[in-house]
Amino acid sequence: MKEECGVFGIVGSGGAAALSYLGLYSLQHRGQESSGIITSDGESMYEHKAMGLVSEVFTEEILKGLKGDIAIGHNRYSTTGMSRLVNAQPFMVNCKIGKIAIAHNGNLINAAFLRAGMEKKGSIFRSGMDSEVILHLIAKSRKKNITEMIIDALRQVEGSYSAVFLLEDRVIAARDPHGFRPLCIGKLDDSVVFASESCAFDILEAEYTGEVAPGEICIATRDRFESIQFSEPADPLSKCIFEYIYFSRPDSRVFGENVDKVRRKIGRRLSQESPVDADMVISVPDSSNTIALGYANQSGIPFELGLIRNHYVGRTFIQPEQAARDWDIRIKFNPVRGVLEGRRIIVVDDSIVRGSTMKKLVAMLRGAGASEIHLRIGSPLITHSCYFGIDTPTTGELIASRYSLEEIRDFLEVESLAYISLEGLRSCVKEREDYCVACFSGDYPLCGEAVERGERGCQGCGGGNRSGFGE
Ligand code: AMP
C-alpha cells in the first residue's frame, strides 16, 4: 500500500504525549488522514488514534490519558479506498516479547508477497498496512532479543522504510539501506527525539543532531543510546529527491540539507535554463513559494503574490477521492485581480502530476486578466509512478507519461511551458548520485518483480505498473 507519512518518537521526557502532539502538528503536511500516538510509562502502553487532522484527533483530556515518558506518533496519508481507521498508525500488537508498536513512513515493495506467504501458513492480518507485515516478521523471528528480531524482520523486507518502534522501555528507529525517506535525530535536554523532518524539533526547541543513516538502527532507552549498522548502505543511495521539490517543509533539514536552500537553487536553475520576458513571477502557494523566489531572484523579475491560498483546507492532492479534488481547487486558491490584470506572468509550480490543478489554475488566472501565462515547473516531467512512498497515481494517469511537452502546453493553454532538466535538478543537491529520480527517469533502484523472484536490483524491466509491483 502506498503511503506518505510523518513519524515521530521521543524517549525520556515527561509529557511525551504532549511533545509528540506538537511534533505531529509540525509534520501535518506529511499526512492528513489520520493521526495517532502511543505512549509507555514503563508498565503499560496507552494509545489513541483517529481519522482526521492532529488538531481534530487529540484533545487535552486525551493527551492527559496518554501517560508516560516514551512515545511514538504518526500522521498518515494513503491512497483511495484505504482510508480507514483500521489502517491508522501507530500500529500495536501483543506478541511473545510483549507489546510492540510501529509507526512507518514508506512503502514495502515485497509486502504483498510476504503477506501472502504468511497468510498461506495461517497468519491473520488485521489491516492492509505494510507495517503489519513487519510486526508479523518480528513476532516470528527466532532471534533472542528485540533489536535482533527487528533486524531479522527488516532484512526480509524490500522498499522504503523510515520507522520508529515503541516498546515498554525504548524507542527503536530504523531506516532502509537505500535511505529513501528521511529520519532525523534530535536532542531535547536529556531526551532523544526522532522525526521525519527537523521542523518537528524546532517547535519543541530540540536540537537537530543528525539522521538515522541508511541501514542503521538506533535504540534509545531512558539512559542509553545505541546504534547498529544492520545493513551496508546501498551504493549509490536512493534518497527521494521529491522530498526537496514538494514533500518536506522548507524550514526543515532533510538528508542533511536545508530544504529551503535546495528549493531556491531549483528556482534559480530553472530561471537560467528557461528564461522568459514577463512582468512578474508568481508562485502557486505554498509549496512552490521558495522555488518562485529563486526564479525571481535569478531573473530579476519581481516576485508578486498573485494567488492567495485559503489555509483552512487540506492540500488538494492529499484528498484521496478524485471527486473531492475539483471542488478543492476552487476553494483553495483565489487570484488577486489587481495584481494580475493586463500583466505577463511567470507562474512557478513545483510539479505537474495529472495536470488537473494547473489546468484550472490557468483558467482562473486568465479569468483574472493575466495577458500572458508562462509556466515554469521545479521538477522534471513526472513520467513514472513512485513505489517508494510518494503518492503518485499510476503511470498512465501521469500527464507527462502520455503527452509531449508541446501537447501539455497546448492542453494547459499557456504561452510557454518549461520544466527543470533532470541534470539541472541534480545540480541543486549535494551527492547528486545518491538520489532516487525514478519518477522522472523510470530508472527504479529496486524492482518489485525481481524482488519477488528473490533477486535484488532491476533486471531491466523498467518497472512501471506491473502486477505485483507496488500497486
Ligand atoms: P495535479 O493536479 O495532479 O497535476 O497535481 C499537481 C499539484 O499537486 C502540484 O501543484 C503539487 O504541488 C501537488 N503535488 C505533487 N505531488 C504531490 C503529492 N505526492 N502529494 C500531494 N500533492 C502533490
SSE topology:
Elements: E1 3-11, H1 16-26, E2 34-40, E3 45-51, H2 54-57, H3 60-65, E4 70-78, E5 91-95, E6 98-108, H4 111-120, H5 130-140, H6 146-154, E7 159-167, E8 170-175, E9 184-188, E10 191-195, H7 199-204, E11 207-211, E12 216-221, E13 225-229, E14 239-240, H8 242-247, E15 253-254, E16 257-258, H9 259-273, E17 280-283, H10 289-299, E18 303-304, E19 307-309, H11 322-332, E20 333-335, H12 337-340, E21 344-349, H13 356-367, E22 372-377, H14 399-402, H15 405-412, E23 416-419, H16 422-426, E24 435-436, H17 438-441, H18 448-452
Parallel strand pairs: 14-24, 17-18, 17-21, 21-22, 22-23
Antiparallel strand pairs: 1-4, 1-10, 2-3, 2-4, 5-6, 6-7, 7-8, 8-12, 9-10, 9-11, 12-13, 15-16, 19-20
The structure holds adenosine monophosphate (AMP).
